[in-house]
Amino acid sequence: MKIIIFGLGNFGASLGSILTDLGHEVLGVDSNLHKVETHRSKITNTICLDATDAFAMATLPLKEADLVVVAIGDDFGGSVMITALLKQKKMKRLITRSTSPVHESVFTALGVDEILHPELEAAERLAQRISTPGLVESYSIGQEHQLLELVVPKRYVGVKVAELNLKDRFQINLVTIIKRGNQHAGQAGLQPLGSCSDFVYQGTTLEESDVLVLFGKKSNLKKFLGE
Predict the structure, then answer these.
(1) N or C: where does the chain have the smaller number of CB atoms within 10 Å of the terminal CB?
(2) What does the pLDDT read at residue 62?
(3) What is the mean pLDDT of the segment spanning 201-223?
(4) For the chain, which domains are there?
């Protein structure tokens, strides 16, 4: 994909670098020359340009872009102006970053369909990891369901999958088991994950460093975690 990212702060630069590593053609745009130079080697292309200027904006290859991301977080006026100009250009897909309820209400009024809340999302995930021992990651799916990556609780180490009986006891599903070798379970959120199988075999014995991938209603997952 051809992607343009406006704003090369911590979030925008990280996003651009990751997308570049994934094989996408990324153009990073920022009015700060230092940021442009700093991230030049990590992003496909970078350019120093004041995107709040309609004439400067017109020099960018917007028509060729499959996706445009406004990743600016510390300049409310600049973010809104750039978003408004991009809406006029009728981009194929436009994603903007919101840092406050006011920010989001303005973007909603502009007709932006995809609004990011990276700080809020990161805070929510961190809060869940702090509150839930062994939690590696969690993903909300719809309003009622959730997918959890959880280091196997100590009470289940040495237990076979069939003995868990998760469907009958908690109405949740074990999607897969991620095998992480001998990595320390207490470092779950910091360690690289290992391999997993396409199917969960009932005779598999759970090991200390295994990560369970669980799916179900949030209320049922909460019962399992609180057991």
Answers:
(1) C
(2) 94
(3) 91
(4) 2-117 (3.40.50.720), 126-225 (3.30.70.1450)
